[in-house]
Design a protein that fits this description.
The structure holds two protein chains of two kinds. By secondary structure, chain A is mostly beta strands. Chain A is about 0% helix and about 50% strand. Chain A is built from no helices and eleven strands. Classes of the chains: A mainly beta, B mainly beta.
Chain lengths: ~110, ~120
């Protein structure tokens, strides 16, 4: 069954803690993305990666970090520097030809304890 | 910078009636435009896209969208709404200033569609 898997579905972060959100895809897509969704603000791009071992900052990268060591995986770390981390986080992937649609995972809801 | 605007936070329509969800865009150059749908606590699903060609684009689940260059609009439409169409709808535009191979999109704020019996 092909697709994008995000885990966990729900995650809680304590003050000063770093947490990592997992994103795995078996669609053989080169490009992967992380978006943050807040009510009334739509989706905002955090980081994206065109290809393995490459990633670029999106519009709201501060307080986040990523890695792309494997084509299938694009984990997102929410660091303690992100002061307002409560949001719904969406991972996506696409073929790398610039005009293609994004395939989304089911999301991770991150909340602060 | 490119942007899209969805002027309505919510659209209410009765089942069986036609529906329209509005989107206007602002880009320099020819736009790549997309519509996505999100059901509760889920990721987004692609509905349709416009890159070039026919101004009327047909997509999934009976949806279509009309590209209007003079009005810079890309409204989503369906001739007969279903209760199961109730969801959050997002318009998006590709970032034309980005020349890489990723599909870097800017999303609107979303419009909630409520279809009632």
């Amino acid at each position: 069954d092909g697709g994008i898997t995000q885990s966990p579905k729900y995650l809680f972060r304590k003050e000063g803690q770093n947490v990592t959100l997992s994103c795995e895809q078996n669609l053989n897509h080169d490009a992967m993305y992380w978006y943050r969704q807040d009510p009334g603000q739509g989706l905002r791009l955090i980081y994206y990666s065109q290809i393995v071992n490459d990633f670029q900052k999106g519009d709201i990268a501060e307080g986040y970090s990523v890695s792309r060591e494997k084509k299938e995986s694009f984990p997102l770390t929410v660091t303690s520097a992100q002061k307002n981390p409560t949001a719904f986080y969406l991972c996506a992937s696409s073929p790398a030809d610039g005009g293609e649609k994004l395939f989304f995972g089911s999301g991770t809801q991150l909340s602060v304890l | 910078a490119q942007s899209v605007a969805q002027p309505e936070d919510q659209v209410n329509v009765a089942e069986g009636n036609p529906l329209t969800v509005k989107c206007t865009y602002s880009v320099s150059g020819n736009p790549y435009l997309f519509w996505y749908v999100q059901y509760p606590n889920r990721g987004l699903q692609f509905l349709l896209k416009y890159i070039t060609g026919d101004n009327l684009v047909k997509g999934s689940y009976g949806f279509e969208a009309e590209f209007n260059k003079s009005q810079t609009s890309f409204h989503l439409k369906k001739p007969s709404a279903l209760v199961s169409d109730s969801a959050l709808y997002f318009c998006a535009v590709r970032d034309l200033s980005y020349t890489g191979t990723a599909s870097k999109l800017t999303f609107g704020t979303g419009t909630r569609l409520q279809v009632t019996l």
